[in-house]
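Researcher: Following up on the earlier apo prediction. This time include the ligand. It's fe (ii) ion, with the SMILES given after the sequence.
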Amino acid sequence: MSSKVIDVLNKARERELHAILQYMVEHYELDNVGYDKLGSRVKEIAIVEMNHAEELGERILFLDGSPVTKPSADVKKNLSIADLVKYNIELEAGAIEMYNEAAAVCVAEGDNVSKTLFEKLLDAEDDHLDEFQKILDHIQKLGDVYISTLIG
Ligand SMILES: [Fe+2]
Ligand SMILES: [Fe+2]
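Model: Understood. Below is the ligand-bound prediction.
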């Protein structure tokens, strides 16, 4: 099987590992300052990303590759709520861009199973992007009034 496919699967896994760690840290920080509602939602998304990392790892193993264990970037800490949401938008949008390209690589290499996996991940990342974008829109329109609704 094509090493190009294993390569894009691993690139995606690196991103997922970063998203997991980033969202977990955000969850702890948000909980700590009392924004439990947003914190719980970010925790749920972190768990979805864990499943993604796992599914990518399983596919890599199936193709006789070796799943990477290093995240694509360091965790950003102590962001303001608006910056945290903006950063998450950046992560989700970056993943969407990369997974679309990866799906095309899978098609070119004749691996439709991996392509389908990327499509499944894209579906979830699209939802995450949409959700974070809506939160940012509300923050920008309503400011502190909206931010206060993110408290549990
Ligand atoms: Fe993901
Ligand atoms: Fe996501």
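Model: Residues 16, 19, 49, 52, 121, 124-125 surround fe (ii) ion (ligand 1) (CB under 6 Å).
Researcher: Noted. I'll compare it with the apo version next.
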